[in-house]
Amino acid sequence: MKVPLLVNDFLDRGETVFAERVAVVDEPDCADNLGSVTYAELARRVRALQAGLDELGVDPGERVAVVSPNAARLLELFYAVPGSGRVLVPINFRLRSEEVEYIVEHSGASVLLVDPTLDDDLGTVTAKHRLLLGEQSDEALLRFVREPQRWAGADEDATATINYTSGTTARPKGVQITHRNIWVNSTTFGWHAGVGDRDVYLHTLPMFHANGWGMLYTACAMGVPQIVLRKVDGPEILRRVDRHGVTFMCAAPAVVNAVLDAGKEHDGPIPGAGRATRVICAGAPPPSKTIERIESELGWEFIQIYGLTETSPFLTMNRRKKEWDDLPLADAAQKLVRAGAPAIGVRLAISDAGEVLARSNVVLEGYWQQPDATADALDGGWFHTGDGGSLDDEGYLTISDRKKDVIITGGENVSSIEVEDCLYSLEGVAECAVIGVPDEKWGETIKAVVVPAPGASLDEATVIAHCKKRMAGYKSPTSVDFVEAIPRTATGKVQKFKLREPFWAGRDRQVN
Ligand code: AMP
Fold it and tell me: Which residues, other chains included, contact 387 with Cβ-Cβ below 8 Å and sequence gap of 6+?
């Protein structure tokens, strides 16, 4: 028998087995928040949303875009929209209005839902149906008395979400993730991370980012209460761990650093210490010192994973093995600093050029309406990650370099080309190149190297202000170097490695 693997399975199980248990605790500091919602109530609201989309005439396959920081109403859409055969497009809420507009248009979304706090900034972005999340969307979409239509032709290979991600092109690409991708990702990730019904999950990761790494589906199937966190704040994370008995969270190294800083200031025992609280970290390679500090200062377990939006994202995991139990902490941290061993069903290989290649059921269907980019990414039957790395004799992957021209700052990808495009629109910029340089807080931060046009009088503040006005703040350079010429190859290609060299000298990894 073959039964399609659909995202619906996760919430169905949550509702059947854990109906009366709290499913979601919404952000309390947010007007109009939903408070605590049980699994039964969550499932009821999800069905009501689906019935509302039916009434609005949104067909299966149509795209529903949403821009919102973490919120219970955002979370519901991850179940309601794909669960009825529609396609969810969760958009990075830090993007500026032109960037959001591009994604809404490119995805062809007929419905756009916007968090009220973003309404002013995104005032010009619209779609056939535009609704503010909250009272307005509840009124327009929640139809409790109507049964949602059955999704005829439900198919595990149907696209469930399109997640736009910055890559090697100036414009972000839409990663098509299928129901099957999500199913395999969420079950294997949950299994490897040991997620069970006694867990409590804190949403430190933005839900839009690779569907919260798929953990928002895993959690449902296991009846895990999900605590919504709208804004990353170290002390607040510790308070929530305490208040809700949180047992695990997923986070980029920059978020982990914020928690470590808060831990230093914290009065009394660290919440969650000694009761198997774990933090699952990815997005950039964390320094081994950070790993040691999580275990020694917080008393939490550190787990590393590696993956990309294009791989749903789960490819590898590095979690302390029984064999390492007796290792001194510094030696265990040396083991844990690697990206990890392939998850079940994942095959990894390193190309002759040193690029990490992957084969698995979590690899994307394709880039939305970009067949050439899809063919390149899947060339030869392997997914090309654009990361440079190596596999050691234990089978563990280490990421050491980036083949793609992408900077990762605070866990978010930034396309260098996009920033360079923006710089070129500033009068007085004759030539420019953008590189990532190491940064204590963000892992990497963006540096612009600019050759001013003859006679132009540019300064750092003007260049940064220009970018901030046109792009999301995290994409703007934080420093600018003015130079006379940019090093190029004989064929005119910018030699970024030469620009990066002085900032990365003496490091064994060229990414941070
Ligand atoms: P995204 O698609 O935004 O999730 O970004 C994926 C990229 O993040 C990968 O291609 C890597 O460059 C980087 N990344 C993710 N996890 C790790 C890790 N554990 N170590 C090093 N880099 C990572």
Answer: 355, 356, 399, 401, 402, 403, 404, 511
